[in-house]
Write a structure and sequence with these properties.
GO terms for molecular function: UDP-N-acetylglucosamine 1-carboxyvinyltransferase activity. With 417 residues, this protein is α/β, with parallel strands linked by helices. The protein contains 14 helices and 26 strands.
Amino acid sequence: MDQLVIEGGYPLFGEVTISGAKNAALPICIASILCDGEVQLTKIPRLRDIATTIKLLSLLGCSLRQEENRVWVRADNLVPDAPYDLVRTMRASVLCLGPLLSRLGQARVALPGGCAIGARPVDLHLKALEKMGARFELEGGDITGYCNRLHGARIHFDFPTVGGTENLLMAATLASGETVLENAAKEPEVVDLAHFLIDCGARIEGHGTSVIRIQGVDRLEGCSYEVMSDRIEAGTYMVAAGITGGELSLAACPFAELEPVVAKLREMGMHIQEVGDRVVVKSNGVLECVDVETMPHPGFPTDMQAQLMALMCLAQGSGVITENIFENRFMHVLELVRLGADIKLSGKTAHIRGVKRLNGAPVMASDLRASASLVLAGLAAKGTTTVRRIYHLDRGYETMDVKLARVGAHIRREQQP
């Protein structure tokens, strides 16, 4: 198992190229099983979760080829079984449930695993698919579903669930009639999935709003498609510039999708502007703490909460972060406290009082974004910070240690004792 060793206190300067979005690439890869013919996907990030998805697609009977950031998929010999050994490592695997039912009329998918940041039950997915004509049995840790052909339905989500919206969006493309998704998730990654499906021949309207309408078609064709850039990775490197007092130029940055993050960073005192085809981010002054609430898009994203908290640890004054999306997403707090942060938890809120200095220490990552927050804190801390269990980080950040080293970070990867 690898760990990262960081010698903190060095400002970052230079250019970082933002990779393709993990949270868009995963459902788009899975959606390829809906298609007749070959799907060619570009800007696919090289991540643990992507490798898991490729293995999953292979076990589902797809033929695949991968070269660098390109993946070719043909779903010619599709089978309906998604086994536990893969699904347990990545919650997004449950997204194959809707497409398998829609394409084959049957699916057997193990109950998912992944980061321990909340229950995230799949009940919403199942109840919605039942409205479209599916029948389910739960036995031995597997969800087994059957249908003749899914039919259109009006589905209202109690909460704008990203995974539920994506699963039903994919399932509805090959269903008979019209499906209407109400209170749907508006995240840019959902929009990117819809754009991919439309390029394959799907009839979708309203993506990016709370009401999505899908007219089912008889078949989807393969296509070539480039995945959007990763807004969370871009936001993380923005914080990296701020927490080290440096200046970074971000290439392939999805600036329009980062509005709530940019607004808070500017409120803290950071300078962020588009310069040509780059976004330049710098902090050459004192930052101030702010109050933040995570919300579904277009609110402040929960996936940036931990990173912003790391930045606030070294800002002036005090601020409050309220986590409204996941009930267990403050596990990084105790690790930041180990570095010298002043944070108090009260239910779903974290009260942060800025300190003058963090000090390096061994810390342990509990989930993907927690990993990023600890790396960011380590970049600014005095002395040596060792971040253990970085397999979480490798699930969602493409060669983060390499990218940081190129812009001046003193960081190395080594085998954990």
